[in-house]
Amino acid sequence: MNSSASATADSALRAAWEDLAAKVRYHRQRYYNATPEITDAEFDALYRKLQNLEEEHPELRVPSSPTLEVGAPVEEGSGFPDLEHLEPMYSLDNVFSKDELEQWLIRTPSDSYSVELKIDGVSIDLVYRDGELVSAATRGDGRVGEEITANARMIAGIPDTLKKNETFPIPSVLEVRGEVYIAIEDFPLVNEQRQKENKKPFANPRNAAAGSMRQKDPQAVKKRRLTLVCHGVGVAEGITFESQSQAYEALVAFGLPVSEYTQVLHTHEEIHAMVEKWADHRHDAVFEMDGMVVKVDNREQQRALGATSRAPRWAIAYKYPPEEAVTKLLDIRVGVGRTGRVTPFAVMEPVTVAGSTVEMATLHNQSEVKRKGVLIGDDVVIRKAGEVIPEVLGPLADRRDGSERPFVFPTLCPMCGTRLAPAKEEDADWRCPNTQSCPGQLAGRLEYIAGRGVFDIEALGEKAAWDLVRTGILTDEAELFNLREEDLLNSRVYTNSKGAVNAAGKKLIEGLKSQRDTDLWRVLTGLSIRHVGPTAARALAQKFGSMEAIRSASEEELAATDGVGQIIADSITQWFGVEWHRHIVDSWAVSGVTMEEEQGEEQPQTLAGLTVVVTGSLENFTRDGAKEAIVSRGGKAAGSVSKKTDYVVVGANAGSKATKAEELGRPILNEQQFEELLETGTVATLL
Questions:
Q1: What class does CATH assign to 82-319?
Q2: CA neighbor of 310 nearest in space, from 591, 67, 609
Q3: What is the pLDDT at residue 401?
Q4: For 589-620, what is each residue's pLDDT tens digit?
């Protein structure tokens, strides 16, 4: 194309952008003034057309673009302040079988029920005063969440101003509950954008939504294609609703979206039929869903039924069984984690399970491979029950043709060649003893240090961690916080095509500087001491108040700490007994990393009155440590599952207790949810 033709094309694009931008501005103004000339859907289409044009031609976007007209961004590095909900934001009780659902319906009789799809997204709480959005918050612990108002303004379906209408008056206060999700068709586009930015793709839409809502820059939230669906109302002043369905009608009239799949049903048979229908059409919805929610429709009856400490009695969630699929086991390989644990994992032909494509699954350890009886080349059954990586249930042995071969566990570390240390009593894992120099372990530790639950350094992910190790920029984590821009010149990740430090490199250096000042428990967690996860680290930081005090404490003093116990105490003592470990702490201290913290209070009684059973092996808890963590927070650590059990925590190689929990319909938690339960006393979303 010659220069004249190119200029003409550019001029035409600019004219098209200006026309679209003018229309969006005009109709947005008419919308906020309650004098719309087009429907919401037509406006959305117009807005999307402008958005897509800017994405295809970023040079057209200017600071005054209507796609950038938002509130002030969150202050960099400030985090999110706490915000108390006007009314508690409860979770839902779950049932897992038709019989359990029927029993709930019998116990909760009503003339009508609102039945809707259970969206696998992230909960949000919106507050409107006199029709204006004044705050938005995450669920948090059900009472207090994180204030994310600036980010919420970037989410599709959340208007700044409620729409006036002839049917429902604008309330003086309206608290709206909803679910934020990424549509199934949009998820590949979100991951495509991340890959262009050299970032690791999200595992599933829910993870993407959860991470997106807590971005520090609202403009980054806008790129994630988040959408809201409302599913409830909290405090409402200046308006009353006779039913759940009427509340939904009002929300729609106000310009807030509700699920198009919701129905008001009157008989048990109708409810069971709808549950069965969606069991066969789970992937027909625009969003990922993992069950159905049944609510008493009458609001007066809802108030009469009330709620327990964690869930309303007038609603129940029916959870569909975990999905299973058959695929080919192509290979069994081993990986090395940050603690030296050598873990076999299955490499499979890609298969869709529970709405996401998977091609790897953990096999935990050598004993688990033998127990399952899988051979390389087998057709295997896999199950995904909420885990990021699915589980291999076992082989379809009758399909074997003789070409299959057994897996041979290596004797040498695949990352550094060191002879592996065999499994010990009460530890089924083989480990690489080359803790300091094994590149797999070091890269894993660096990535862990940068994680959101530790130092929260955004520019240091898996790929970057491996780059720092392979190029020799870091030989251990001691010098991490001493890195300078000139140290990154040999990096492939942190330099541009001209060999200069790129934006990611500058962001890394800035992040290392800004994140040095953090909580002591995060620093302790970042040391990757075996068995010391966030819960134990918090307890130690609260009791001892400084790294030096922890380092100098006797094994007996450490073991006496609530939520720690003898095994963790022994692990800490052994860790600080290694010279290069102490060098890490000393180097970080010189670099300005937090080493002291005011002594906190005793553990909050978040589990008061709750009975919790732990089964299987947990990564960050020993058996005694998990028990002490429960008891120290006022809970009862039971040894068997019964109908009186409130939660069952399931780790690797869980046995009959996990099966019993499923049979009795007891809530099942993974380790991450267990830590959430310990901290808040509630779990936002159950498996």
A1: alpha beta
A2: 609
A3: 96
A4: 999 999 998 554 567 888 888 999 998 878 88
- The DSSP-derived string for 624-685 is HHHHHHHHHTT-EEESS--TT--EEEE-BT--HHHHHHHHHT--EE-HHHHHHHHHHS--SS
The answer to whether 205 and 184 are in contact (CB under 8 A) is yes
In the chain, where are the structural domains located? 3-68, 82-319, 323-434, 439-514, 520-590, 611-680
Going by the annotation, the residues of the binding site for NAD(+) are 40-44, 91-92, 116, 139, 179, 295, 319
- Residue 528 backbone class (left: φ over 0; alpha: ψ -120 to 50; beta: rest): left
pLDDT digits (tens, 9 = 90+) for 67-97: 764 222 233 343 788 999 999 998 888 887 8
Eight-class DSSP state of 410:
-
- Angle (nearest 5°) at CA 151 between 146 and 154: 150
Element at 226 (helix H, strand E): strand 226-237
Give me the residues paired with residue 303 across strands.
none
Active site residues: 118
pLDDT in tens, 152-205: 999 999 999 999 999 999 999 999 999 999 998 888 888 888 878 887 777 678
- What is the Cα–Cα distance from 545 to 596, expressed in whole angstroms? 6
Is residue 122 within 8 Å of residue 309, measured between CB atoms?
A: no
Cα 327 to the chain's mean position, in Å?
A: 27
* Structural contact between residues 270 and 205, judged by C-beta atoms closer than 8 angstroms: no
Q: Do domains 439-514 and 520-590 have the same CATH topology?
A: yes
Please name the fold of domain 3-68: Helix Hairpins (1.10.287)
**C-alpha pair distances (Å), 187 with each of 104, 183, 192:** 35, 6, 9
Answer whether 0.70 is exceeded by the pTM: no
One CATH from 1.10.260.40, 3.90.180.10, 3.30.420.270, 1.10.150.20 for 439-514: 1.10.150.20
pLDDT of residue 274: 95
Annotated binding site: 40-44, 91-92, 116, 139, 179, 295, 319, 413, 416, 432, 438
Burial of residue 517 (CB within 10 Å: 0-12, 13-18, 19+) is exposed
Helix (H), strand (E), coil (C) string for 416-443: CCCECECCECCECCEECCCCCCCHHHHH
Q: Classify 455 as helix, strand or coil.
A: coil
Architecture of domain 611-680: 3-Layer(aba) Sandwich (3.40)
Structure tokens at 624: 């005694």
pLDDT of residue 648: 92
Residues of the chain with pLDDT under 50: 31-36, 39-41, 69-78, 386-387, 600
pLDDT at 36: 46
C-alpha 382/C-alpha 367 separation (Å) is: 18
